[in-house]
Design brief:
Layout lengths: L10 H5 L12 E15 H7 L4 H4 L9 E17 L12
Antiparallel strand pairs: 1-2
Length: 95
């Protein structure tokens, strides 16, 4: 998935998942997905899921007393990278 317009590979982020042999550019949309659930995440939830998959959930335990929401996504589909600027949150893109 090489695209000269995108910013390159985020080596620090990808190091966490090196066993999966993934590469993805930063500064680009690289997939589309459906949000199927919004999940309340607190310390109790973190203690339940962290042992199940520490690599995925490690980011939840970067501070004590975590309190917020996470999203369950399904139907993830890789797409050709689309360059995007800015720090984006949840949004729709007319693909």
């Amino acid at each position: 998935m090489e695209n000269k317009i995108c910013k390159g590979i985020d080596k620090k982020a990808i190091a966490r998942f090196k066993d999966l042999k993934l590469e993805y550019p930063t500064g680009c949309i690289i997939a589309k997905a459906k949000i199927t659930d919004c999940i309340y995440v607190d310390d109790k939830f973190v203690k339940e899921v962290l042992p199940k998959n520490p690599e995925v959930y490690r980011g939840l335990v970067t501070k004590n007393n975590w309190d917020g929401y996470g999203f369950k996504i399904e139907d993830v589909e890789e797409i050709e990278p689309i360059p995007i600027n800015g720090k984006l949150s949840l949004w729709e893109y007319d693909y």
